[in-house]
Design a protein that fits this description.
By secondary structure, this protein is of the alpha+beta class. It is 27% helix and 29% strand.
Length: 343
């Protein structure tokens, strides 16, 4: 298959063979269901290369730091300095706190050992632009699932338009505003930080994480509400996934609590994962440059869209999101669209 170039705007190509191989190899375990949210553990064949550690592990090392790009800072970019001997995985939606305002990563990036680069981010703390610390730390959270999904779609459009991993910052702030209203935290946050909404619902989030344990060998998580897949994340190394498991559970739980009120109007459909993954295998694919190692693939299919970070023939991270309106047909639970024609 001939791959598109990073700036190519020609029609999309079929899935890269490495992505197709990963999708075909995925296996799901028995779902854990808590108040209507179904979470399936995902397993796949391990890929030993490339070896990397996660951002939260790297932040504990003296030779790794994340800072503003300059003293004045820049909302959509941060500087990452990795002087450790390890490649480090920066995970899409992972939140960093401190410096002039909290941010989330716009895409998954693998930064090579002994290198530095600027990474694209979105602000998650609208009411602060002053230093809380010289360097960033981990907030302990990922962006909730709906925000990750919408941001991923915006980044895909930005890549097609101008080869940039930019988000729609205004839309991110609107989402966080809606989050605070739904979480009843609007009057309890001084800087409108996303993390404040998580803190307000932490007891409920803890209930989910207790009910959804990490399993041996697990390398991914798939979430379903009713008969719809909300999303799936898969990492190439189970030990890396283990560091992110709780955050991914909280991401889907927070989304379920605020968008669905913690209840599902439909019974959980056990066939939803296999149906979704079969459609994903038919996705169209574009390839783009990434700030770090490898290539960034963006996919679109009938019931969703997503991204994959590929390094050689390894898919380091696959993220797929179930969506409405972006695909080529209606979901089985919906009536076909009625088309009205005017004479």
């Amino acid at each position: 298959m001939t791959e598109t170039t990073p700036t190519d705007t020609s029609p999309k190509s079929p899935l890269h063979p490495a992505i197709a191989t990963l999708l075909a190899s995925l296996r799901t375990g028995d779902p854990k269901i808590h108040t209507g949210l179904g979470l399936w553990p995902v397993f796949a064949d391990c890929r030993p290369e490339p070896v990397y550690i996660t951002l939260v592990e790297a932040l504990a090392l003296p030779d790794f730091k994340v800072t503003e790009i300059s003293e004045g800072g820049s909302v959509p970019n941060l500087r990452v300095v990795n002087e450790t001997p390890h490649h480090v995985l920066l995970f899409d939606g992972e939140e960093l706190k401190g410096a002039k305002q909290n941010r989330i990563l716009n895409t998954t990036i693998l930064i090579a050992a002994g290198t530095s680069l600027d990474v694209p981010v979105s602000c998650t703390e609208q009411g602060r632009w002053s230093y809380a610390s010289a360097e960033f730390g981990s907030s302990g959270s990922l962006a909730y699932a709906e925000l990750r999904k919408l941001k991923s779609a915006d980044v895909a459009m930005s890549l097609q338009a101008n080869a940039s991993h930019a988000s729609n910052q205004g839309a991110v702030w609107d989402e966080i505003d809606s989050l605070h209203k739904a979480a009843n935290s609007s009057g309890k946050t001084q800087t409108h930080a996303m993390k404040d909404a998580y803190n307000e619902r932490q007891k409920e989030l803890d209930d989910f994480t207790r009910e959804i344990p990490l399993l041996d060998g697990q390398c991914g998580l798939l979430a379903v509400i009713g008969d719809r897949v909300e999303g799936i994340d898969v990492l190439s190394r189970p030990e890396a996934y283990a560091k992110l498991h709780r955050r991914l559970v909280e991401s889907h739980a927070m989304d379920f609590l605020i968008r669905k009120g913690g209840k599902s109007n439909k019974p959980l459909d056990p066939e939803a994962p296999s149906r979704f993954l079969a459609e994903a295998a038919l996705a169209e694919d574009t390839m783009h440059a990434t700030p770090g190692l490898g290539s960034d693939h963006r996919m679109r299919f009938r019931w969703g869209h997503g991204a994959a970070l590929r390094v050689d023939e390894t898919i380091v991270h696959l993220a797929l999101f179930g969506t409405d309106g972006l695909g080529q047909g209606h979901h089985p639970s919906e009536a076909p669209l009625r088309r009205h024609h005017r004479g």
